[in-house]
Design a protein that fits this description.
By secondary structure, this protein is of the alpha+beta class. It has one domain. The protein is built from 1 helix and 5 strands; from the N terminus they run E-E-E-E-E-H. It has a 5-stranded antiparallel β-sheet, with helices on one face.
Length: 83
């Protein structure tokens, strides 16, 4: 499942999960200011890298059009590397 959310207020989430395969991967760039991720250098921007709990810095563009392109290219690279 691929889900992209961008609001006029600047909130966003670029989300991809593969729960129907054994890897059960989840990848998401978002800027929800979760207190749990305050230690991430790019807070509130953060990236769930493979699971909800594996959170790292997010360097995705702040421009929605560019960010969408970057995220779709990330998905494409992952799909090509797993085939």
């Amino acid at each position: 499942m691929l889900d992209i959310f961008v609001s006029v207020s600047g909130r966003y989430s670029y989300h991809w999960e593969r729960r129907l395969i054994p890897a059960n991967d989840l990848y998401r760039h978002d800027n929800a200011p979760h207190k749990k991720w305050r230690s991430v250098a790019t807070f509130p921007k953060h990236f769930h890298n493979g699971s909800e709990s594996n959170v790292v810095e997010s360097h995705i563009s702040n421009t929605p059009e560019d960010a969408m392109r970057e995220f779709l290219m990330f998905v494409r690279r992952k799909l090509l590397s797993s085939s």
